[in-house]
Structures are given as C-alpha cells and as structure tokens.
Request: fold
Amino acid sequence: MRSLVVPALIQFLLFLLIAPLVTGILRTMKARLQTRRGPAIWQPYRDLHKLLRKGMVIPDTASWLFSATPYVVFLTAAIVGLMIPMVVTVAPLSLFGGVLAVVYLLALGRFFMALGGLDAGTPFGGLGSSREMTISAIAEPALMLAIFTVAVSANSTNLTDMAKFAVSQNWRFLAPSQILAFGALFIVLIAETGRIPVDNPATHLELTMIHEAMVLEYSGPYLALIEWGASLKQLVLMTLLVNTFFPFGLSRDWTALGVTAGMGFYLIKLLLLCCFIALVETTNAKMRLFRVPELLAVAFILGALALISTFVF
Amino acid sequence: MNSALTGYAFFGGLLAYGVGAIAGLLASGKPRLARALCCSFALLGGLLEIGACGLSLLGSVGTHWDISAGVPFLVYGFRLDALSTYFNLILSVLATAVSTYSLGYLRSLGETKPAGLLGFFYNLLLLSLTAVFTASNAFFFLIAWEVMALASYCLISYEHRHQATRRAGILYFVMSHAGTCCLWVGFLLLTSRAGRLDFASFATVAASLTGPWQVAIFLFFFAGFGVKSGIIPLHIWLPEAHPVAPSNISALMSGIVIKTGIYGMARVFFEFLGVPPLWAGMLVLIVGVVSALLGVLYALMEHDLKRLLAYHSIENIGIILIGFGAALMFISLNQPRLAAIALIAGLYHTMNHAIFKCLLFLGAGSVVNAAKTRNMEEMGGLIRRMPQTALGFLIGAIAISGLPPLNGFVSEWLTYQALLAGFSTTEPLTRILFPLAGALLALTAALAATCFVKAFGITFLALPRSESAEHAQESGLSMLTGMVVLALACVVLGLGATLFLPVFDGITGSLLGTRISGDLIAAGGLALTSGSIRGGTVSPAGIAALFVIVSVFPSLLWLIWGRKTKRSVGPTWDCGLPGLTAENEYTAFAFSKPLRMIFAALYQPQREIEAEYEVSPYYPKAIRFESEIEPTFEKRLYDPIREFILAIANRMRTIQAGSIHAYLAYIFVTLIVLLLWGVRS
Reply:
C-alpha cells in the first residue's frame, strides 16, 4: 500500500507544481521570440493565487452543472496525471487505466467543459463549446492511430509497460514509424491544448477564440480550477509525448536518487519541447477554423502511415 | 429442483405478459383500469423473467421445454441456454423499468387515447420478444418474430392520425417483411442441410457447412437480421419509426427490439455457421464501422430529440457489430481466445446500449411531454424545472458517449482491446483493417460526445426557448422510478464490470469453447485486463474512487481560500445589450454547423436565405432561413428501387382485375401447379 500511495502523492504534487510553470515558460519564450519582455515565468502561480482569493459571479441563468464543471475538469486532468510515467517508468496508478483511459478521461473533462460553456446561455459559450467538441472529435482518429502505433510495438496499452519497452530501446524514436507517429501526436497536442495555429491561448474576446469562449463566464476560484486543469492537461499530453518517444533518463524505480535524476532529465526534455512549441507558435499564423480539419487530416495520414510502417520496416 | 423453479418463473412471466395483454383488451372501455392492469402485469412478468434468468445463470443453464403442437414440423420449444438467458435478462430488466415508467406516462398521454389497446400490444410485444429470445425451433422462432413485427407495427402506428406516423409505420412494415423474407430463405437453407427444424440440429451440422451453402446462409441471415437491427444501408425505417411511437415504446424499440437482430446474428454466426470465410468477418466489421460513423454523423444533424436518439441506435449497433465482425475474423483465423474477447465486447455493448438508450428515451419522453414538442430548439432551461429527469438524462449521455467510469466506456474499451489484439496476430493485409476500425471508432465516440453535449446542453441548460418549456414540470414518481433503475444499472455495469463478466463464460463456453472471464479480471476483481495483465488494464471502480480521493485537494483549496471569497449571482454578460434573452442563445443548428461544413461532401447541405429590408440590406426587417441536408440513402438507393417496384406493380394491375372469382382461380391454379410439382419430384 505504501509503495503505491507515496509515489502517487509525489507525482500528483509534482504535476500540480510544474503545470503552471510550463505555461509560464511557454509564454515567456513566445514573448522573447516576439522581442517582447513578457511576464515572469512565475506569473501563472500569481494568477492562480489571485484568482483563488477573489470573489466570483455566477450567471443567474446557470445551474448546478456550471459549478460542477470546474471540479470535473480539474479532477480528470489530475487523475490522468497519475496514470502516466513522469520521471519513473512505473506510473503510480497505471493499473487503473492505460492510454485509452487517459484519452477518455480527458474527453470526460472536455464534455463537462463544453456543457459549462453552454450553461451560462451566452452565445460565446455555445460558440466555444461547438468548436472545441468539433476539433477534438476530428483530432481523435489521428490520436488513436498514433497511440496504436506505439501500443502495437510495446504490445500493451498500459503506459508503464509502454515506457518499460521504450526504455529498453532508447534509440527507437529514429524508426520511421515512430517519427511519423510523433508528427501525428504533435499536431494533436497543438489542437488539444488550443495553441496556434489551431487556437490562440492569448486571445480574449475575439470571434476566433475557442477555449477562452467557453470559460468566459467563469471567475474567481472556479476559473482558477479550470486554468489549472487546462495547464495540467497540457503537461499531461506533453509528458506523454516526451516520455513515449524519448524515454531517456526515466528512472526504473521510485528511489530518491532515481526520482531526482529522472526529474532533471524530464525537465530538460520538457524545456526542449517547449522551445519547439514556442517556435511553431511564433512562426505560424492562426488558421481559419475550417482549415483546421485539413491540418488534422495530415495528422491522420501521418498516423496511418506510421501504423503501416510498423510492419513494412 | 432448480430447473423446475426456473420453469415456474419463466412460464409465470410469460403468463403474466399474456394476462396483461388480455386484460388490456377486456378493460379497454376503462382506460384507468386498463393502464393499471397492463402495466402491473407487465411489471410482474418482467420481475419473474429476471428471476428465471437469475436461476438459469446460477446453475440451470440449458433448461428447455418442448410443447408439441401435433404437427410434424412445429414444436413450441423454449430453451434457456446461456445466450437466450442473457438476452432475456436484458429484455426483462428493460420491461421492468419501462412498465414502471409507463404507469405514469400513459396517464399523462390523456384519456382520449385507447390505453387498453396500447396495453394489449405492449404486453404482446414483451411476450413475443421473450419467445424470440428463447425459441429453440426455427418455425416457432419465425412465428414469434412475425408477432413481434406486427405488434411493434401497431405500436408505431398508435398515433395514426398524423400522416407522418402512418407513413413511418408502413415503411417499417415493408422493410421488416423484406427482412423476414431473407430469414425464411436462410432457415430453409439450414433446414435442407440439417433435415430438421430445431436449433440443436442446426448446431450439429454447422461444422460440415462449407462453400456456397455457407456463403448463402451467411448473406441471407446478415441481411435479414440486419434490417431488424438497422445496419446501414438497411436502416432507413429506423429513424422514421422509432420517434413517432409513444416514448415508452420508443424506449423498448431502440432498447431491445433492434437487439433481436443482434441476437439472431450471434445465434447464427457463432453457432450455426461453422468456420466462416475471412471476408465474412471483414464484411461485418466494415458494415459495423460504416453504420457507427454514419449513424452518429446523421444524428448530429437532427434537432428532433427522439430522431437524434434513433440515429444513435444505428451508431451503437455499428459498435456492437465491430465486436462481432472482429470475433468472426478471429474464428476464421483460429484464435478462439481473441474471438471470445471480441464477442464479449459486442455482447457487453448490447446490454449497455439497451440500458442507456432506454434511459435516454424515457428521459426524452418526459421532456417531450413537459415541453409539448420534440424540437430541441424550443426547449432549454429544463435542468431547473425537471432536475431529476435532467440528471438521469445526463448519466445516460455520459454512458452513451463512452466516457469513464460508466458502462459505455467498459464495452468500448474491450472493443479497442480486441481490435488491437487483432493487429498483432493477423496477416499484413487484413491487419490494417483493425487499427483503422479502431481509429474510426474513436472518431465515432468523440462525435457521439459532441452530439450529446448538443442534446443535453440545448435541451436542458441555459434559458427556456419557448413558453411551454418555461412552464415545464417535473414528471411523476413512477416515471422517475423507471429512470432511476436504469441510471443505477448504468453505474453498476460500469463500476462493477469485473463482477458482471463471468456471466459471459457460459456464452463463450458454448459458442467458442473457451471461458476467459478469469483472464479478463485482474488485481482481485479491481481491474479489467485485455486477456493478460501485460496487454493493458483499466479499473472503472478505481477511477471512480480516485475522483473521490483526489477531490480532497480542491476541497483543501476551498477550505483555505474559497470559503472566504464572495460569491454572488449576477446577470450573464450580454455584450452591453439590454438583457440576455433566449434568442441570443446558441442553437442546436448553430452548434452542429462546423461539422456540417466539414462533412459537406456527405451531407450536401442546401440553404436558402431570404431577407426583407427597407433601406439598407444591413438592417433586415425579417430573415427567413431554410436549410436541409440530402437524405443520401433514401434518394440514391431507395428511390430507384421504389420506382422499379411501382413500375412492375403498374404492369401487374392488368391481372388484378378486382374480381374475387379471378383471384380464387389464381389461387386454385397455383395450388394445382405446386401439388403437381410436389408429386413429380
């Protein structure tokens, strides 16, 4: 029991603490690339702290679902964080669900977020919900194909087993199937976390917004939970990406030394991925909404090619 | 002892349905009495059948009773083997819930409608469904099948004063009989091989079936049962017929009547067919994927709440067939263990879909009753006016979207695992089919979630969009009780999946010769696995527990800061305009707009806008907007067939002179010819 609870607690806290930091780092990197100074990388923590203490206004048209949504969004992202390997190959609660459970739990959070957007009754909420559900739906087949590619090599959908397999073949990411799958998953990551060219996380009150439109009516502690949940989800997907394809430095067990060393490697890998995302965001313009399906079709084709190449090569 | 008790419960249940039917006819002059009698007897019948199935599962599996009719080929044979027990269990759970619901629902329909007649056909439907699921003789099976078709036809046409209802009824009637025709041919082919009509002898000749016989039998049964279960392209009757029936009947139709097709396929494909060729499994798999995807895509375009749910039935039948198709392929590839996993996935989804679809239809029934319309665009805000119904519908929506930890997730997870296992074990050309099916299943599930965000959000959330939605009232106790039973079943079948899996041992044991539920359960019943612990695990109960445990953290935040924050209720932001009204809200039509544009190639949407203005076109006085999507299958496939049939019918009018004498002569001549034919051979 202790061997289960302690790692779970450690990983839970690590995820909670690092998630806002990654958001902050991404913002700062983007600002620097655009030759702005940008806020400090600690700004998301300050925002969360501020929001948690602020008062909130609940729309008079909303029901209990409006209040339940922030909790569901936060909890699903936090629970998913316990199922994926972060610094150690053995995810604390990988028995409770593999990569399929991860995808579907995130979908549960999205389901409630979209309902929360509709509940306030403003046209913006509905607009955001509609777009969010549409884009994530057409991102799903690409995501599944990429996941299948990796799962087929490891012969498991269990993330601990997938990580163990990956660790045993550190240079496997050079295989064509893995490169293609990485490409597919990266596009899905961009779409799912609402980054340019699919959505603009810095936008507010524009008709192009997606995520921001859904959370428009939220304020105070509820908004804090949603923002924290969103950054958790982003970190979860990024972790999935770096640890499945680049398993370097994943510790084999939960020892103090292993965790510390794994943590170092993990942060470096995350930082590199952040650089990459910031570069993509800075060098691309936001797409029109109806161009997004084309991007996701590219991801789907990459995923299908990845799968085919697992038995061709 | 046990099997005798099973018999008492089983026939007691049949008797209760029968008495309920007759009571409905006798008391048709007194609607209140008829309602009470019909629903109570149906409820009693459902409970007794649950008892019979429970006893059967506990040990007397395979009990059978034969009542000879004195005619050589007709035996009224009932058999409660593992598969029959399973489907009868689904039926009786639904019968119990729907009968409870109907007590209140029929009252709300008003006194003007003939409640006794509805009660008669309702009980007759339950009786014939039980017979279909338990018949062990082909002839008796077809009789029960026909009674079921006719009873459901009468129930669909219940509100026959509307022309749409009559048209839907006729369409159902024609399609259903075309299907039955295929079944007759299929059974005759089987009989000519087996020499007898009972199911047991079909099973014994299964191993010797090969070549064209097997192909013909497979195709006829697939088409025949496919019409009933609503696979694409044989589905066109389903979205017409299910919504026009009274809602308690729609719930039964979508919940269990279409599952008779699934039962038939399970029975024939896995017991009577031997080892099918590989392409047969691939065909079923592909039809499953296409039905699932197109079903949900058409559902997304619907704003009629009940039609939307009907299209989702097509989608879920598709998901079930993905499991069945994979299982058939594994049988051809001689992988019985994998076939068992795929079959369990399909059968589990059959149970799950029956329960959550029934729940959703009952919820829709309450909503339609309260809001006096089936159009979602005129609903809204009902979560405040009908909180319990809304919660029930929400649980159903989460379950049907396949989201954890409810039951829909479990069966979809098993389906994915079967597909994944298929990729690792098969030949290169066929193996690519499995992950593609998996990817499209993922798309289907995500689109279903989108559709139910729309259905729930537009129907229940925000402001009411019409007068009657504004004055909607929560439904009565019996209607809520019926929904509570099903909502609980959704939760139990999700969280308690590992406890439920051993039920399938009998089925896979008799059909495939393997009992694998033990391999699917790991960690002392906490988690499901995909046949081995290394393949992947999931624990719906564990996930549910995690929700409780992890919520400690937000509670802590709330204790530290949240408690002290000011919480006020204010108006929704309205862009500075005076007051937000229901007209500002996003509509169901707008919600599905992005998908209509993305899949324009499928929908072929056509729209027409007319604006009236006085001075400048930027300030219109009134705008009329019309949009419709092309009903592809009706237009491209069925219209030519219909015209062809009508053309032939026109020619044949020359021999249809309207004189009885001529008709008698035709019959007489036909009889003579047939007799001569018989003597000759």
About this structure: The first strand of chain A starts at residue 56 and ends at 59.
